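To close the chapter, one final illustration. This time we ask the reader to focus less on the individual chains and more on the assembly as a whole: which components sit near each other, and how the overall shape emerges from the parts.
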Amino acid sequence: ETGVTQTPRHLVMGMTNKKSLKCEQHLGHNAMYWYKQSAKKPLELMFVYNFKEQTENNSVPSRFSPECPNSSHLFLHLHTLQPEDSALYLCASSQKDSGQSSYNSPLHFGNGTRLTVT
Amino acid sequence: GENVEQHPSTLSVQEGDSAVIKCTYSDSASNYFPWYKQELGKRPQLIIDIRSNVGEKKDQRIAVTLNKTAKHFSLHITETQPEDSAVYFCAARSGYSTLTFGKGTMLLVSP
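The assembled structure is written out below.
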């Protein structure tokens, strides 16, 4: 049983559709992440939220729009995607220490959403 | 920013042999180096990690070594078993920053 759950597991959408990916973490962490995993590429960091505030946006196209309403939930809103956006989208969470230790716990990943854009 | 190179991209071994996967990193300030295992159709899971204040860490058949001077670290799996077959990712991070991952190594263990 993973502490990070993602829905849906699979999603097929047309280029004109609008859909959303959902992630929920049950670990009490305060940081959440979206990663994109494509074949033969490293895990690509897309967005980072610390304490519900977006702290990183790795030059992600505006057709991907994240939302973090609280520290347990993270969404990725999708619209007018391209076929090359087809990939596995992984959510992850960690615990970041806000003090001087700069401690950041290991990442815990969800099972991902396999997205196919047709 | 950090750059992590991982080799080889694929590795085939016979059951019982040892497997070694190597990674190099570019940021000398990096101080945390985890390894993740991703089985087919499943999520990446942390299997072992090492911090820069130690040179080696072992957990049963898995060990990780770190050479800070050369800026490289390696994953060693002994007595490999078919269930070790998966994609393995190394990663590096300095302080509060986010992880930078290598491209992954597909390990195939033949019975």
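Chain A touches chain B at residues 2, 4, 33, 40-43, 45, 48, 56, 90, 96, 102, 104, 106-112 (CB under 8 Å). The CA atoms of residues 39 and 80 of chain A lie 22 Å apart. With these observations in hand, you are ready for the problems at the end of the chapter.
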